[in-house]
Amino acid sequence: MWFAVTSQESRNIATIPNALSAARLLGVPFFFWLIVGPKRDDLALYILVVSAFTDWLDGYLARKLNQFSRLGELLDPLADRLYVVAAVLALFIRDLIPLWVVVALLSRDVLMSLVLLYLKRFGITGIPVHFVGKAATMNLLYALPLILLGNFQNAVGEVAHVFGWAFLLWGITMYWYAATLYLSQIWSMRSSLHAN
C-alpha cells in the first residue's frame, strides 16, 4: 500500500516517539566523530546501544500511547539509515572494511533514492517497508558495531570480527534482495502510475 501525508498526520508531530527519533538523529555526527576523530570506539559503541534502545522505545511508545505520525514513519528509518551510512564511512576511513562494502551499501541507497524521486512525480511519498528490508537493516546494525568491536585485540574482538562479517555479508545480500522486491512492486504498478 502506498501512502501520502495527510493534514491530520502532519500536525501530529509533537510526540514522545518523534522526540526520541530526533535525539537518535542528533547522535549520528557525534558517533561518526568518535570513530574517526579520537577513535573512542567504546563511546561510539555506547551510542549505538543507546540508539538501538531508543529505536525500540519509540516504536513501543508509539503503539502504547497511540502516537503515530507520518513524521515518525520518516524519522525512524532515516535514523537507522544514517547510522548505517555513518558507520560504513567511518569504518572505511579507519581501514576496517574494504571499498566494495561501501559501494555495495551506498549504491543501493542511491538507487532507492532515485526511485523515490521518480515516485514523487506521481504523488507517492514513500514505499512501505518490507520485512526483508527491516531484517537487512537489523543485520547491518548488528554487523557494523561488531566489526568495530572486532578491532579490539582480545578474544572478544576475534569472535566479534567473525560474527560481524557474517552479519555484514548476510545484511548486504538481504539489502539488495529487498531492493529487488521494491523495484518489482513498483514495476507491477507501472501502468497505474502512468495512468495517473
What would you say this structure looks like, in words?
The chain is mainly alpha-helical. The protein has a single domain (7-195), classed as Up-down Bundle (Four Helix Bundle (Hemerythrin (Met), subunit A)). Helix content is 79%, strand content 0%. Mean pLDDT is 84; it is low at 1-10.
Q: Give the SSE string.
A: HHHHHHHH
Radius of gyration: 18 Å
Looking at the structure, what is the overall shape?
Answer: globular
Mean pLDDT: 84
* Cα distance spanning the termini: 16 Å
The number of distinct helices, counting runs of at least 4 residues, comes to 8
Structural class by SSE content: mainly alpha
Strand count, sense and barrel status of the largest sheet are: none
CATH architecture term: Up-down Bundle
CATH topology: Four Helix Bundle (Hemerythrin (Met), subunit A)
Q: How many β-strand stretches? A: 0
Tally of individual domains: 1
Helix content: over 70%
Report the β-strand fraction as a percent range: under 5%
Structural descriptors:
196 residues; globular; mainly alpha; disordered N terminus; single chain; Four Helix Bundle (Hemerythrin (Met), subunit A)
Topology:
Elements: H1 7-11, H2 16-36, H3 41-64, H4 70-93, H5 99-120, H6 131-149, H7 155-188, H8 190-195
Helix pairs in contact: 2-3, 2-4, 4-5, 4-6, 5-7, 6-7
Describe the structure in brief.
The protein is an all-alpha fold. 79% of the residues lie in helices and 0% in strands. Helix 4 runs antiparallel to helix 5 and helix 6 packs antiparallel against helix 7.
